[in-house]
Write a structure and sequence with these properties.
Layout: H1 2-18, H2 29-38, E1 52-54, E2 59-67, E3 77-84, E4 91-93, E5 98-106, H3 116-122, E6 125-131, E7 137-145, E8 151-154, E9 161-162, E10 167-172, E11 175-182, E12 188-189, E13 196-197, E14 203-206
Antiparallel strand pairs: 1-14, 2-3, 2-13, 3-11, 4-10, 5-6, 5-9, 6-7, 7-11, 8-10, 12-14
């Protein structure tokens, strides 16, 4: 936010010397407003119980799939994909409580995130896997870049304890976030494709503990 604001300020100052209109700098005001809105990080109430998985991101549910062989969890899973536009909050949050078992970064392409499977398999990504105290995997969250998004931020480290709704990273400028839940937990999906969801504030699925 600071860097973006300084760049816009310098551009506005420079425009003063090449444009005869003294108020030309105001054309950068909408960009500054959008920049501040993009990096907003609202406080959210955490709904449900420990068996309810909250949304790890703001956006629209783009797809819901059963994955017979899930490369993220190493077992059958349900995948819920969320598309984030440039107007959504881009903070990522933990869907459930647990311990970070692994953090996996993958180099890749920048395919449009609306191409669900292709983007999921080929785009640059960062994935965290969450386990319960006994070491059993209970969830995975994959941050994926898109056509515009080029930077993933992940502060989670192996061994960190996370709570439901806890912030752990973000994706900058439009992207895709995927939630993976092991099929053995018998997840009941609570959302539909096309539904708008908010990180922490909406429950995506419930499981049997």
């Amino acid at each position: 936010m600071v860097v973006g604001t300084l760049v816009l300020a310098l551009l506005g100052y420079g425009l003063h010397f090449v444009c005869p209109w003294p108020w030309a700098w105001v054309i950068f005001v909408p960009v500054e407003v959008w920049l501040l809105a993009f990096f907003r990080d609202p406080e959210r109430a955490i709904l449900g119980t420990a068996s309810d998985y909250v949304s790890p991101a703001d956006g629209v549910v783009s797809d819901i799939r059963e994955i017979p062989v899930c490369d993220v969890l190493g077992e059958p899973a349900i995948r819920i994909g969320i598309f984030l536009s440039v107007f959504n909050v881009h903070i990522n949050r933990a869907p459930c409580q647990g311990v970070i078992k692994s953090v996996q970064y993958r180099k890749g392409k920048f395919i449009n995130a609306l191409h669900h499977d292709e983007a999921s398999n080929k785009n640059e990504a960062n994935t965290i896997v969450i386990a319960d105290p006994a070491g059993r995997v209970v969830a995975g969250v994959r941050q994926l870049v898109g056509l515009i998004a080029r930077r993933i931020v992940c502060d989670a480290k192996v061994g960190d304890k996370v709570e439901r709704g806890q912030r752990y990273g973000m994706i900058k400028f439009g992207s895709r976030t995927e939630l993976y839940i092991p099929s053995r937990l018998k997840p009941t999906v609570k959302v539909k494709v096309g539904q708008k969801v908010r990180g922490t504030a909406d429950i995506l699925a419930s499981v049997e503990r």
